[in-house]
Every structure is written in structure tokens, then in C-alpha cells.
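Minutes, project check-in
Item: structure for the 504-residue chain
Input as provided by the requester:
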Amino acid sequence: MASREERSLKLRVFFIPFFATGHIIPAMDLASLFAARRGIEATIVLTPANAALIRPTLQHSTTSGHPVELLLFPFPSKASGLPSGIENLAAVSSEDSSKFTKAIDFSRDAHDRLLREHHPDAVVADVHFWWITGIAADIGIPSVCFHVIGSFANVIMNQLWETKVHENVPSDSHPFIVPGLPEPKIQIVRSELPIFLRVRNHFTDNWDVYRRAQGESFGMVVNTFYELEREYCELFRGVDCKKAWFIGPLDLFSKRGDHDHVHKGKAERGGGESAAVVENRERCMGWLERKKVGSVMFVCFGSWCYFEDEQLREMALGLEASGMEFLWVVRTGDHGEHVKTEWMPEGWEERVKGKGLVVRGWAPQAAILAHEAVGVFMTHCGWNSLLEGLSSGKPMLTWPLVFEQFINERLVVEVLKVGVRVWDGFRSTFEKEKVVVPAEAIERAVRKFMEGSGTEGEEMRKRAAEWAEIAGAAVAEGGSSHKDLNSLIDELFMVREKTKDESH
């Protein structure tokens, strides 16, 4: 344990992620990078239930000699009307979504108290918590906004917000070009836009507030690497922020170093430490060890997205008909209740036994994607998932569902050309408008990746492997992300020294 004098000499940085697994994991990754640097004390600020998700990672950081401290604050369950223990977006039912939105706003007072009481030297906060910029300015410390989605999606959403071009198309399914972007031209339809751009909601009301807070902050950190989104990073840098550091893929930084240390860390990221999580981890990795290189398709749609029974049945039949081995993660129901199996076609589990593994709940995605047995990734196009897929050199079958995922898909399919859509029919970010994707479409998309040399699938595999090398170079010493990390840390140290000099 460091002495009080030693701690006072360290740069104390707080990391405050949003209440969602896809935000907490990269924030923890970033905090770990800071903690590994000499002279820095990194603290992640979480509510109790969310802290449980990263307990193994916190313990791992301690045993590795670079501990990330944990500071807890109570989730405003009572004030927002949410049941006790429901503190993460993935656990919130659709009926309680408005209460969750209230809980976000009710967190402001807790953040204010924590920052004033502990007075860190700097704070890195999720963009959702826009008020932290003002609190930090009031107590005289730099506030860095943290974006867990890439520059491509951010720039496109800002362009649509400014131009309103999507409001002038004749229908939700009428394609239009997003203006003001580099080649290739990005075409999309209104039905596939984030909901805040389609109807008024909490994000619509606060979008300008978020952007203003970003512009007033010390700068922005984006979980990406410059080479991946070069032109979009430049566009992002020129809008809404004083400075921008592109530090990613954050999960790939954790791959550097000792093999056993890395394997253990990646397998534990974000799952918690319950018996079910440990069992799933062991099942997945043990099953993959028995498979040939590149023979398995990993099917996973993140911690928040879910499907109705009819769609799950079609998916099961499509995966079976494709003939490819698969590891399929099926999300648990709201509040973690036991997953039903009525959706499974009769005799299906027996027919795919040995060829397919169905995992209910959580699975160690980063470790699975890094495994050599995995050859294809069917994904919802969440930004963390795309980065993990690219970092591991996996081509993708894209099946976006919500948020900015349909925009991310354009990057994968049209710009990088490392993926193909599962379904070319009508798609929507509104749950009530979603159509069931038939088994035949799923089978057809999978078979594109099973064809031999010289085919579309083979070309995508080559490009994906190239991007994995570029991503690895970005996080290596001297790489673009490594340099941006050093630059940010150096600037925060300089701000502290300047503040000390001015106070004397």
C-alpha cells in the first residue's frame, strides 16, 4: 500500500463510465492503461451492481501490480422507481426504460459530491454524463469526455443532426446520401437511423447539451485507432472538441505481454464472478480447443440486444442448414430469469450436438474472438464488438439491431469491406417494425464465408487479417494509439503542474 505522501505525488485520475456493460468494459480497459503508467493512481467510479461485472478484472489488475482503485456510489433506485439491483441497461425491461433515463439524471448529485469530496487531478467521464464537464471546471480540474463509439458513427450522426437531410425523404425506406462525407458515399434509410434522429426522446432533447459539454471539456478520448477511420477522425477532431485522442482498440492493449496473463485477463473481461459465468467461460474455451483452425462461427449480439422466439427459431434452423460449426450466445431474459427453450425447433439440439454450442447469458467474447478456431463473427455491430472482431482478424456477418449499429455496419461492409449483411430486406431500429429474418437468408450469408479461394469470403478474410495487423501496430510502442495515450497522460501531468505553480 502506498504511503499518503507517495499517493499525493501521483496523478489521481477518476474514470466514470455509463451504466451499460459496453461502456464499463472499455472504461475499465482505459483505467488499466493509466494504472500501468508510473506515477498514476487510476480509480473507476461505479454503482455496486455494475462493479460486480468487473470484480475479476479489478482483482487481476491488483495481482498484475497495477491496481485500479474502485470507488462506489449508490445507484438512485428509489428516486427513479427502479427495483433494487437493476443498475445496468442490459437488466432494464422495456417497461422500465423511462425510469432508467431518470436514474441517469439523478446521478448528477452523487457525481458532484464525489468529485468535490475526493478532488482528483483529472476525470475521464462518459459523454452521457455531460454535467461532469461543468463540475470539473468548477473545482479546477480537467475533464475528458470518453466516447465508446467510433469517429465514423459520431461524424455521421452529427451530420444528420445538422443537415436534417433524413427529415426530407419521402419514406422511412427511401435511401439517401449522408452529405459532407469523404468517399465512398454513405447511403442509408431513415428506418435504420438511431431512434433519437427519428422521434423525439431523451437523447434528442440533450444532444446539443452533450455536444456543448464536449466542446467545453479538456478534450475527447475515442476508442478507435487512427488508421481505421483516418478521414473521419480528422472530421471528428474539427467538430465539437478542443482536442481528440484516438486510443484503441482498448481491448487489444490488454493483449500485450505475457501469454498466460493476457489469456486470463481477456477471458475475465466484463463477466463478473458468478458460478454461471465461470461455467460458461470454461465451456466456451474448452469447446473451442477441440475445433480446427477457422472452423467455427461465433454468433453473439451483445449484452443488451435480444430476439423474439420466432426469430430465434429461424436463426437456429439457418445455422444448422449452413453446415458450419458455431458457438452461439443467447441473451438471458429481463432481470436474468431462466432462459426458455421453447423456441428451439423439435430435435434441433440433438441434431447439432457436437457441431454447435449454445451458451445462455454471458460469454468471454474477447477471448473467443481471439481463439484460432473462430473463423467468422456474426455480430450486431456494436462498436466494441466490431473492434474486437477486427483486432482478431475476423470477417463479419452483420445483423445490426439498435442505436448506431446500422451506421457502424456501413463502415464494415462498404468502407472496410470485411463483412456482408445477413439480411437485405427492410430493417428498423424500432422494435415494433422489426421483421423476422428467414433461415434461408442466414444460411445463404454464412455460406459466403465457406467458399474456397478467390471468392468474396476469402477476400474478406484477407482484409480482416490485414486490419488485425494494423490494429496491433497501433497499440504497440510507437503506434498511433500508443502515442495518443502518452500524449494525453503527458498533458494531464502538465495541467496538474501548472495548477500547482499557480496556487503558490
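Outcome recorded: The longest strand covers residues 40-46.
No further action items on this chain.
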